[in-house]
Amino acid sequence: MEKLSKFIYMVVCFVFFLLTDLYLSNEIIRNIANGFTLHNNVFRLNYVKNTGAAFSLLPNAREFLIIFSVVLITLFFVYVYKHLKSISLKTIFTISLLCAGIAGNLHERIVFGFVRDFFEFTCFNFPVFNLSDVFINIGVVILIILILAKKTA
After folding, report:
1. What is the C-alpha separation between 100 and 94, in angstroms, rounded?
2. Where does 1-153 have alpha helices with state H?
3. In this structure, what DSSP letter does residue 55 have?
4. Active-site residue (options: 117, 119, 128, 130)
5. Which long-range contacts (CB under 8 A, 24 or more apart) does 22-31 make?
6. Helix, strand or coil for residue 127?
7. Residue-wise pLDDT tens digits, 33-59
């Protein structure tokens, strides 16, 4: 696949994941605000305003987290651009997912001043999280797997 096509693929994946995240997050928050509840032995919807990062680390560090997010997204895009000839579509897909998760949380920090978390496990003690966090974690896990698979091949 030619380099331009790979970069377009990354942008399309990134935009798709980001728009999906923003739309679903807004719908979930809107439904919670309108009284929708979901609660069972494993999972519940619980709206929480998170002024920090993952696991509520760095509370009230909004400006730092905004700058850090912009830098990370920029570095990922630059990395992909510089390695377009050799990078796999799986890696581009995964980096797009990861960047969209970072961008989703970035968007909320800028627009709302906090990140809207709403997924909570009831079966064990775990911080409340959102769809952006899911994208970030899946992206990180798959990237680690891809890196390890490449090193053992």
Report:
1. 10
2. 3-33, 62-82, 89-112, 131-152
3. G
4. 117
5. 22/104, 22/107, 24/131, 25/104, 25/108, 25/116, 25/118, 25/130, 25/131, 25/132, 28/118, 28/131, 29/116, 29/118
6. coil
7. 999 999 999 999 999 999 988 777 888
Catalytic residue selected from 53, 73, 115, 133? 133
User: Does 133 qualify as catalytic in the annotation?
Assistant: yes
pTM greater than 0.85: yes
Read off the pLDDT of residues 98-153 as tens digits, 9 standing for 90 and up: 999 999 999 999 999 999 999 999 999 999 999 999 999 999 999 999 999 988 86
* 132 close to 123: Cβ distance less than 8 angstroms: no
Q: Decide: 83 and 7 in contact? Cβ < 8 Å.
A: no
